[in-house]
Amino acid sequence: MGEFKHLVIVKFKADVVVEEILKGLEKLVAEIDAVKSFEWGQDSESQEMLTQGFTHAILMTFNKKDDYTVFLSHPKHAEFSATFSTVIEKIVLLDFPATLVKPPPPAAAKEEV
Amino acid sequence: MGEFKHLVIVKFKADVVVEEILKGLEKLVAEIDAVKSFEWGQDSESQEMLTQGFTHAILMTFNKKDDYTVFLSHPKHAEFSATFSTVIEKIVLLDFPATLVKPPPPAAAKEEV
To answer: What is the 8-class DSSP label of residue A9?
Structure first.
């Protein structure tokens, strides 16, 4: 069994300072060891038909599902979620054991490009 | 600038054999070198309120946006997309340069858990 992923896609309310939210998220994951890695991105293609209005993806990776459970029940997560829920217009969450079909090549391969 | 990600979340039509679609996807990314890595997952928590009915996440990683462009314009991608579009009930796509805030620890750290 591989890693467990917590994926959030979101459209923020119009007046929200997204940078502050992301900073809060960064602080949150830094404080909770159970989160193995965290990355996010803002859609750069802006094809409304494809994005359905969603703009940001947030992806957390855990070594195992138990670590995700630890994260979920962490008081700081509850605190952050309470704030987060006030700034979003819409959201989809998917939580899943990840199947890595095409693993990235060794880091050295990156240099060859 | 970091990696570029192609994220797809999807709800398949009721009569679709998802395994076959994923097998096709696996074949596709294996054939196109521009795709650095590929992973997918099926939501295991099934909280309809949170998933909005979406069940699967598909995540492709590219070393740079140009590689994503190569992938998009690849004839095999066009071929696969034509099939894919017939099996989905709903879909959201987000394409973004990824910001890695909390990088995963060195592989060795995994063993300590």
So the answer is: E
Check if the interface score ipTM surpasses 0.90.
no
User: Is A92 in contact with B51 (CB distance < 8 Å)?
Assistant: yes
Per-residue pLDDT reduced to its tens digit, B63-86: 999 999 999 999 999 999 999 999
- List, for residues A35-58, the tens digit of each pLDDT value: 999 999 999 998 989 999 999 999
Contact B64 A98 (CB under 8 A): no
Indicate yes or no: CB of A54 within 8 angstroms of CB of B105.
no
CB nearest A102 (choices: B30, B43, B110): B30
* Structure-block tokens of residue A113: 């490009």
First to last CA, chain B: 31
All domains of chain A in start order, with CATH: 4-97 (3.30.70.100)
